[in-house]
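Per reviewer request, we include the raw input and output of the structure prediction for the construct analysed in the revised manuscript.
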Amino acid sequence: MDWNKISGSRQYEFVEKLHYIREAGTPGERRAAEEIQKDLQKLGLTGRLEEFEFSAYEVTEECLVVTEPYEKEYRVTGYKGCGDTPGEGVEAPFLYIENGDEISLSYAKGKIVMVNGPVRKEMYQKLVNAQAVGFVTVSGTPIDTEEDLKPAGYTLRSVEKTPIQGVNLHYKDAVELVEKGASRVKLTLRQKKVTRVSQNIVARIKGTDKAEEILTLSAHYDSVPQGPGAYDNLAGAALIMEVAKYFTENPPRRTMEFIWFGAEETGLCGSQAYVREHEEELPRHRFNMNVDLAGQLIGGTVIGVTADAAVCQMLSYVVHEEGMGVSFINGIWGSDSNTFAWKGIPAMTLNRDGFGMHTRYDTIDFISPWSLKRSACVLGCIAERLAQAEVMPFQREVPEEFVKKLDVYFGDR
């Protein structure tokens, strides 16, 4: 691959242009999709908008009040996806159970418990089994001030039945609850399920003589509501735009599909919509190269490969040949590559270690043109080797151990 054709500055300008909140299903996300379309047009590519619906939750009431031995209401954010408290809320004895160890859980029956958060599916089931009647989690640090005192927002995913509800509290308030001996609290949470519309942007470069085989390069372009998501994942979106430009000038033998996924932050909704929409042609797909987290200068480059271990070895050889240091992890990954692997398509996700994910600090201030160029070259050299190979160097299969994990991962989604 000719590194001179890859520009970090051009990618930085892409990040700069879309540097605003792009929460899934909002006008900000739609605006970004249309900007990506325009960039593709400049490359001579048609960027199709593929719309899809997804479910989301809107919290209408979230409240935590200490009723004994003192009275005070605390600022909280409700856990989305865990239903509503009955009537006027739930009032019960309060207990701090730290990390939710088995001894502490044995005292949780009939209580609203505070646990070091966030609560995910496994811990939620433990709380339900322990017969807690509600939960409070803790986020933030003791040195936070101003905007950072707002408790983080969480969504409970992959849980069918939600008999108990929960809220999240900032660290400093959690300290006060424990120090002042809160013994009884009242928790109220009300929310409604809504349907929103997002969109994927898809552009295809048809292969010259092996067009029946498809390679995908993907990244999500939506952000969480807390900030503009420059690292997670505008930088990743910029990377695949840059690689798309390279292949418009260097036609690939295999067909290459470039996909910008919407609504990744709501549970990989965009990639799941894509595999549904393209189900008939999925047997032609040979490998997915996904990017999620990129652009920060200081950090390590990691590629998570959900495929046979031999794929890690082959990719390692390619980047080593190009003189670039990369670490490899062979397993399932919490990103859109999982969706492809779940459908039996070998997949990888390229990551760059960094700071500020899912916070208001995830801004362009920490993005580096140098890092953007380097990661684009890593992605590009892998893509070029596979796009131009006479024969794909690995089989189209995902190990059974990963398939079983992915079945659990996607089971209730």
